[in-house]
Each structure stands twice: as structure tokens, then as C-alpha cells.
Amino acid sequence: MSNKRALIIVDVQNDFCPGGTLAVTDGDQVVDPINRLVASGKFDVVVATQDWHPSDHGSFASVAGEDVGTLFKLNGLDQVAWPDHCVQGSQGAALRDDLNLDKVNMIVRKGLDSEVDSYSAFFDNGKRNATGLEGYLRDLDVVEVFVTGLATDYCVRFTAEDSEWCGFNTFVVKDATRGVNLNPGDADAALEALAEEGVVITTTDEILNS
Ligand SMILES: [Zn+2]
Predict the structure, then answer these.
(1) Beta bridge partners of 57
(2) Residue 127: which region, alpha, beta or left (left: phi > 0; alpha: psi -120 to 50)?
(3) Rounded to the nearest whole angstrom, what is the distance from the C-alpha of residue 62 to the centroid of ligand 1?
(4) How far does residue 121's CA lie from ligand 1's centre (Å)?
(5) Is the pLDDT of residue 1 over 60?
(6) Given 120, 138, 160, 209, which residue has the most CB atoms within 10 angstroms?
């Protein structure tokens, strides 16, 4: 296959699913379409990401002394104050146990630096450090990147934008994502912005029937 395809499964972790500390509405509903995509054999590379924070991470409202959901500056960058979530080694940081990990080639852990948040699977929010994902995909001659997971308006959006910025042909699988929607409509607005930036919005059925 010349046009190699990667599937990126963003942050399908317990804390982002119902019952978690930063639960996304219906976050667990992404597991079924993602498992169908993984099983389809249509991807040459499968990458899963994990938000993986030290317990004193600067994005945590409890650490920043901010109310949850407020916007503040973390080392000069816009930052939403989040509830404590995805603390390294915790059950909340674990990937959902109903997610099919059999074909996962690489797990990217991000958000390890307390001083900066990292929504994207490629770079931290200040684009100061890379995770190594770009080089990994290039070495494997990946041309197309399909982004799924949580959440549409944050880590999925930033991952897709950076993928596009890196020059990969980038797709977001809409039904395999769910949004935080801190403000109503945020997830839909994120998809619209991505489409304007050249990211293709697609669906699981479209991919499986192609
Ligand atoms: Zn986080």
C-alpha cells in the first residue's frame, strides 16, 4: 500500500468517560466505532494516546487555584482550569478496558510536563516539545491520518490541526469522537473550524464502505 494510513485513538481513558473526573457526555460511545475501525484492516498503523499528568499538573484547577472551567494563563499560554484528571498510574488514566488494543503499534503519553498542557498527540500547547509521533509516522511512510477519540473540542481538534500542519492528509471520524462542550456547541464549532483548515470530516461507515 503506497498511501499508508494511520488511525489515532486520542485519550479514550476512564477519566474522560462517564464516571470519570472529567467525563465527556457519551464519551464511552466512541469505543464501538473505534473498535470497528481497528478491526477493519484498513489501517497500517494504530496509535493510542494517553493524557498522563503528574499530580501537580499546572492545568488542574486545584493546583492553579482557579475555578474549574475558567480560563487563565499557564506560563504565558491560554489554559482552561480542569478538574484533576488522568494522573499517571491511576485507574482514571487507564485506557478503557473495552477498547481493542490488539493492533495498537504505539502509545503516546502526553501532558507529563507540569508547566505546560498538551492537547495534541504531536506537540505540547506551546509547540516547544514534540512527542515523536510525527517522525514515527513519517518513518512508516504514513500519508493519511485519521483522528478519533476524546474530546472533539480539545485533544482531537489539536491533534488533527497539528497533523495537518505536519503535512499529513488528515481526517476526523466524527461519530468516533465526542466533545466536552464547556460552552454549548463547542464540538460542532471545532469540526467546522477543522473543515475550514482542510481537515476532512468523515464517518466510520464511510471509511468501512470505501
Ligand atoms: Zn489533561
Answers:
(1) none
(2) left
(3) 13
(4) 12
(5) no
(6) 160
Helix, strand, or coil here: 82? Answer: strand
Say how far apart CA 155 and CA 56 lie, in whole Å: 20
CA–CA separation, 168 and 151 (whole Å): 20
**What spacing in Å lies between the alpha carbon of 85 and ligand 1's midpoint?**
6
Beta-bridge partner residues of 46: 7
Cα 160 from Cα 145, distance rounded (Å): 8
Phi, psi torsion values for 35, nearest 5 degrees: -65, -35
Residue 22: name the closest of 48, 59, 66 by CA. Answer: 59
What is the model's pTM? 0.97
pLDDT in tens, 10-36: 999 999 999 999 999 999 999 999 999
How many other C-beta atoms lie within 10 A of the C-beta of residue 31?
A: 21
